[in-house]
Amino acid sequence: MTLRIQEHPILDFKQNNIIHFTYDGQAVEGIEGDTIASALHNLGIRKLSHSIKHHRARGFYCAIGNCASCNMIVNGLPNVRTCITKLEEGMVVKTQTDKGVLYEHV
């Protein structure tokens, strides 16, 4: 399933290379030029982190790196703003619930 725009009446979309990465241990794919958050959004993944104070799910919000809604652990580094971080081949992306604490799915 993809939520990516495939055809448009006045715009052309060039076909970029597929980028392989893992999200919470699952092998997934994005497209060259994607940010981590946009690749996850395209895959239907809406929850990117958890609110530290209220423990609620957070998703794609500002998309310009000003908030902390998209903070995730990327290649072992916590608090990465995934809305402005370009996707790279082999990245390991994990959900973050606290100041760098991994969210363990139950």
From TrEMBL:
Annotated signal sequence is none
Q: Which SUPFAM superfamilies match?
A: 2Fe-2S ferredoxin-like
Extract the GO molecular function terms from the UniProt entry.
2 iron, 2 sulfur cluster binding; oxidoreductase activity
- Can you tell me which residues the record assigns to a coiled coil? none
Q: Does the keyword Metal-binding apply?
A: no
Keyword terms: Oxidoreductase
**Transmembrane stretches, by residue range?**
none
Q: Which Pfam families match?
A: Fer2_4 (PF13510)
In terms of InterPro entries, this protein maps to: 2Fe-2S-bd_N, 2Fe-2S_ferredoxin-like_sf, 2Fe-2S_ferredoxin-type, 2Fe2S_fd_BS
* Name recorded for this polypeptide: (2Fe-2S)-binding protein
